[in-house]
Structures are given as C-alpha cells and as structure tokens.
Write a structure and sequence with these properties.
Elements: E1 12-17, H1 21-30, E2 39-44, H2 53-56, E3 65-67, E4 78-81, E5 86-91, E6 94-99, H3 109-120, E7 125-129, H4 141-146, E8 150-154, H5 163-170, E9 176-178, H6 180-194, H7 201-204, H8 207-224, H9 237-260, H10 265-269, E10 274-277, E11 280-283
Helix pairs in contact: 1-6, 8-9
Length: 284
C-alpha cells in the first residue's frame, strides 16, 4: 500500500547502475540543480566490495551526498548512496537496510528497491537504468509504470556497458531512452510538473551549468517549429541577407524563450502559457 503524507509527496529518483555507472552518475549530477525538491537514490549493485561513491560524487553536485544507514530519513535535495551487500527498502519515509537476498550470482538490489518504492512511497517515482552488466531493475519497471511513475534508460551508445539499459528497453516498459545529460533535463521537467520549483534554483547553479539545458531547449523548439515563408531562401541575394538577419534575430528570441523556461511554472502561466515571436506562436 502506497502511503501518502505531506513529508512523502516529493519525487524520488532511483538511478540504478553497475559497471560503467560512475560515468553516468557524474554526467547526470553535473546537470541537476541543487534545489529541485527531489531525492536522488543511487543504487549501484555491488556484491562484495564497498562503495566509494559517497566520497567521489560530492565533486559533481551541490547537493549533499550521503551513504545510507538504517532508518535514515528520506529528504529532498539530497543524493543517497546504497551501501554494498545490502538490500534497500523504504517504509514510513525512511530507508531500511536488510541482508542481501541474492548473495550469489548477479545482484537484484535495483529491482528490490524499485518494488519497495511502488509499495511504500506516495510521491512521484522516476526509475533510471544506466550502464551496467546483467538486467537488474528491468523486472520492476512494469510496477513503476502501474503506479504512474516514469521510466528512463540510458541511451546505449552513451553507456560504457549497455547490458542493463538494453534489458530495461527490452522489457517494453521504458518511457525515454536518453543520454545522462538529457536524463537530467527530463528529471528537471518532471520536477517542474510535479511541484513548483523555488525561484532560487537559477541562483543555485552557475550559468555554465545551465547553458547545456538552455541550448538543448532552444534547439528543441527550432526543430519542431515551422520556419515562416518570409524567412525561406530565395534567388535574390539582397533578400537572402535580410532573411539571414531576421533568422538570427529569431534564434536569439528562441534562446530568450529557453531561458524563460528556467523560471518557476507559475510565472510562465501568467503569460497565458505561450510566448509570441513575430511570425510564430510557440506553446510552452
């Protein structure tokens, strides 16, 4: 039974990985703002060796990074790391550690944690499967979908070891197949849709960190938007120069639009959920 509560209504993102996962974790965390109102739980399926992720990952995020201990409270805007040789469960808003249920063969700690989330967490669930061997996590993705969660697999050509994301995709229960950087963008989008992100999100991250997000959003709008007739090339070189200048101005407007999307949702709704650019009408 999924328990609802004021302290358990924020999204939890489970990032499951193994071999090659460190590259995916660092690329993902670099592109996440520090104050999204989301808890990030990294479930790295290690069977015999201890983890050092709680010492390594603080270099790549402004969020606090913590190694999970039994009965640790789940809070937003933090990165939590599973310890080795333990299954991870949630109950009453806390993490609970148990002896690993599969001590031989490939671990299934990602599957165990995802199933526990579907039963005992009331907020939005996001399951992310990144680089690793075997197919841990794939068996729990249907359950995530059944409770309205979002499932994401790392794009195979960006994964050092594609077995885990490939198994997740083969399950038929994946919503998005993305690079680690684009996974971060999707998490931010979901966080925006789930709850209002404080206005200090922009202030908490540097322009350099936000630039990839802004650039991708501008390119996304450019791809889906039909270029007005008056901007299309012609045989007249003078007209083409005028059109080039107009197109450059349009692209600057698109960049401004992408920057505006970093504002909290309620500020964008004030503008009737659309932005007008000469010759275009773009829905946000």
């Amino acid at each position: 039974m999924r328990v609802q509560g004021a302290e358990r209504d924020f999204p939890v993102v489970c990032v499951g990985g193994s071999a090659g996962g460190l590259d995916a974790y660092t690329r993902l965390l670099r592109h996440l703002p520090a104050h999204m109102g989301v808890a990030i739980v990294i479930v790295n399926h290690l069977r015999t060796v201890g983890t050092l992720l709680h010492e390594i990952l603080p270099r790549y995020t402004e969020m606090p990074v913590e190694l999970i201990t039994d009965s640790l409270r789940i809070t937003p805007d933090r990165v939590f790391i599973i310890p080795a040789q333990r299954d991870l469960h949630v109950l009453d808003g806390e993490f609970h550690l148990k002896s690993i249920s599969k001590p031989r063969g490939w671990p299934d700690v990602i599957t165990v944690f995802l199933r526990s989330l579907t039963q005992h967490w009331g907020g939005k669930l996001i399951a992310v499967i990144v680089s690793g061997y075997d197919g841990d996590g794939a068996a729990a993705l249907r359950g995530i979908k059944d409770v309205g969660g979002i499932t994401i697999a790392q794009k195979l050509d960006t994964a050092a070891q594609p077995d885990m994301p490939e198994s997740a995709i083969a399950s038929g229960c994946i919503d998005f197949v993305l690079s680690p950087e684009d996974i971060a963008l999707e998490i931010v989008r979901i966080a925006h849709a789930t709850r209002e992100i404080p206005g200090d999100v922009l202030a908490s991250t540097s322009p350099a960190r936000n630039l990839p997000w802004i650039t991708r959003r501008a390119r996304s709008f450019a791809r889906v938007t039909r270029i007005p007739r008056f901007l299309r090339p012609s045989a007249d070189p003078v007209a083409n120069r005028v059109r080039s200048e107009a197109l450059a101005a349009l692209l600057r407007d698109l960049q401004d639009l992408a920057v505006s999307l970093m504002q909290p949702v309620h500020e964008r709704l004030i503008h009737h959920q659309c932005v007008r650019i000469p010759g275009l009408r773009l829905q946000i």
